[in-house]
Amino acid sequence: MLTSMAELTNIIKGVPAEVVVKETLQDDPISTVYLIDYQGIPSVLRLDKPITGYLGLDRSAEFHLLNCIQSYGFSPEPLYSDPREGILIYRFFEGEALTPTDLGTEGKIVELGKILGSMHRLNLPDFKTRFVNQIRHYEKELKNDVDGNLLKRGIDLFESLSANEDDWVLCHNDLFAANLVQGKKLLILDWEYASLNHPYFDLATVLENHALTEPQSELFLDAYRGNANQLI
To answer: Rounded to 5 degrees, what angle do the CA atoms 215, 220, 224 make?
Structure first.
């Protein structure tokens, strides 16, 4: 349900700068996204809904990560965060969200491969969020809601693939076309699930969810290898 204008006005009163709401860009079960002016800067406001607590999302870690990687040019520029109020503000980026078909074009799939390869080789000693912690959270929340044997098999499979933490790198963990925006450059949005994880997770997400042909997959992996120190 959309936050009423009165509720929204009350929430943004706590932001220590002028915020002018222009329009609603997106509303989904997790958050509502608004186009705003923040200190006169065209920006985006993401306002969380209560379900984010159930999902165990660490908004402080997300904001910290966005600040750590901002200089690399493939993520939004963070401007303000208040995790207690569920607020994230980042600079507006002009562009269009991709579709799976868009992603398959040669230029875009190569650009994504290069970005992902560069991202997977970043050294971020202050970023400690581990994907295994998210898995444990979901295991706890879902144990009474799904088939126990199926859940156990999934957890066992994950543990077998991720036993060696030396293989873990910074992963986005949600690399679907809708989270990729093409403007003057390709930008990756929605870093809320990012964590230290096995690089195969990001690679599999791209390869298995966008109907890439074999030549397209090879282009993607070749671009990735060129920027990832032969992680695969």
So the answer is: 145
- Give the pLDDT confidence of 74-108 residue by residue, as tens digits: 999 999 999 999 999 999 999 999 998 888 887 89
Q: How far is CA 43 from the centre of its chain?
A: 18
Map out the domains of the chain with their CATH numbers: 5-91 (3.30.200.20), 96-130+168-225 (1.10.510.10)
**CA separation, residue 169 to residues 131, 173, 197 (Å):** 10, 11, 6
The residues, any chain, with a CB within 8 Å of residue 56's CB and separated by 6 or more, are 134, 137, 138, 141
- Angstrom distance (rounded) from CA 48 to CA 25: 14
pTM equals 0.86
CB of 129 within 8 A of CB of 215?
no
